[in-house]
Design brief:
Blueprint: E1 3-7, H1 12-24, E2 29-34, E3 54-58, H2 64-73, E4 78-81, H3 88-93, H4 96-115, E5 120-126, H5 149-168, E6 172-177, E7 180-181, H6 190-199, E8 204-207, E9 213-215, E10 217-218, H7 219-232, E11 238-241, E12 246-248, H8 249-259, E13 267-270, H9 285-288, H10 298-311, H11 313-316, H12 322-333
Helix pairs in contact: 1-7, 2-4, 4-5, 6-8
The structure holds nicotinamide-adenine-dinucleotide and thymidine-5'-diphosphate (TYD).
Thymidine-5'-diphosphate binds at residues 88, 179, 189-190, 193, 205-207, 212, 214, 249.
Length: 336
């Protein structure tokens, strides 16, 4: 592997993965291919912009010609696909782009990887393809039962990727990560939303009674897991990535307020998400056998993340702009 195309690399996990790869492998070239939707942000990759091993291509994974041209131009041998529409609440308000990018876009990458005989297509999937699990943990062999249009689109995209392995022998691998947090996460997701609202003394909208449970994975632990599967994973296989740091949303919101010295009266009950998954939890024995384990304890990672948003207000304040405020109005004010 020498020349890696990171689709969706200007987003949250993709950008952290790009930083990790350039730090870890000085002999790799890393090319970000990104449409720069509302969630993509050149500032996320600004710290590596001058690295001679880094390049950026503005493009859509749904556009076959654009993808083909980027792969040829940069002599790409490996694609790592982060590109997706990623927010459950937006998928409920407006699912169209989710089906386009998360299903059709994954299909286009399979086609190009097959046509140009790439060494690897690694696809980033999610725990949400399995659906909720009230007790116990999902193994990689468990059935998919997604509930939201986001999760169903991710499941469809992933099934296409697997079908290209089974049908055409395309060299693919897949990782299914749990809820991820850390620097550069777009403001709509729970943790950055709660942190930035609290900094601004704005209400923290907690869905339902806050009792839903998510496992919380630090973004660099997620990036290292993808690195391990890229280098040591078995072709055709999917690997769960999880941290075993299950917390309720109420617990997370209280901890954020405590770290910022803000009152718990900021917590406000918001109208619940339809089909809100009660809990996600994954068994990681398979990835553990490749030598990966998470390093970040949640309370430590949360403290560092809160500090990052306190220190990097120049990164996030401009994001609270017209389009984001329109979404906020639709999601939190008009649905009340
Ligand atoms: P994000 O929303 O922060 O970033 C997505 C990136 O993809 C953005 O840069 C956006 O511009 C780009 N993009 C969107 N549509 C595109 C298209 N058609 N062509 C090219 N680029 C496009 O997302 P994230 O949180 O970093 O998630 C990255 C991947 O990881 C996604 O596939 C997501 O499903 C998966 N995932 C996320 C989490 C999580 O907790 N955030 C957990 C598990 C899996
Ligand atoms: P989110 O960050 O959207 O991730 P996901 O839906 O992929 O798990 O939400 C994490 C949890 O926080 C989820 O149980 C929904 C809840 N949540 C709220 O209570 N309020 C909010 O404003 C948001 C965005 C999420």
């Amino acid at each position: 592997m020498k020349n890696v195309l990171v689709t969706g690399g200007a987003g949250f996990i993709g950008a952290n993965f790009v930083h990790h790869m350039l730090r870890t492998y000085p002999d790799y070239r890393v090319v970000v291919y990104d449409k720069l939707t509302y969630a993509g942000n050149p500032a996320n990759v600004a710290p590596v912009a001058k690295n001679p091993n880094y390049a950026f291509v503005h493009g859509d994974i749904c556009n076959r010609e654009q993808v083909r041209a980027a792969v040829k131009q940069h002599n790409i041998d490996t694609i790592v696909n982060f590109a997706a529409e990623t927010h459950v609440d937006r998928s409920i308000l407006d699912p169209d782009a989710f089906v386009q990018t998360d299903v059709y876009g994954a299909f286009v990458l399979c086609e190009i990887a097959k046509e140009l005989r790439l060494e690897r297509l690694h696809h980033i999937s999610t725990d949400e393809v399995y659906g909720p699990i009230p007790t116990g943990k999902f193994k990689e062999t468990d059935r998919f039962k997604p509930t939201s249009p986001y999760a169903a689109s991710k499941a469809g995209g992933e099934l296409l990727v697997i079908s290209y392995f089974l049908t055409y022998g395309l060299p693919i691998t897949i990782t299914r990560g749990v809820n991820t947090y850390g620097p550069y996460q777009f403001l709509e997701k729970a943790i950055p939303l709660f942190i930035t609202n609290a900094i601004e003394d704005q209400p923290i909208p907690l869905y339902g009674d806050g009792s839903m449970i998510r496992d919380r994975l630090y973004v660099l632990d997620h990036a290292r897991a993808i690195d391990v599967v890229l280098h040591r994973g078995t072709l055709g296989e999917a690997y769960n990535v999880a941290a075993d740091m299950e917390r309720t949303n109420l617990d997370v919101s209280r901890k954020i307020l405590a770290l910022l010295n803000k009152p718990e009266t900021l917590i406000q009950r918001a109208l619940d998400r339809p089909a809100h998954d009660v809990r996600y939890a994954l068994d990681t024995e398979k990835l553990g056998a490749l030598g990966w384990e998470p390093q970040m304890y949640f309370e430590q990672g949360l403290e560092e993340t809160v500090q990052w948003y306190v220190d990097n207000q120049a990164w996030w304040r401009p994001l609270k702009n017209g389009a984001y405020l329109d979404y906020y109005q639709k999601q939190y004010i008009e649905r009340r």
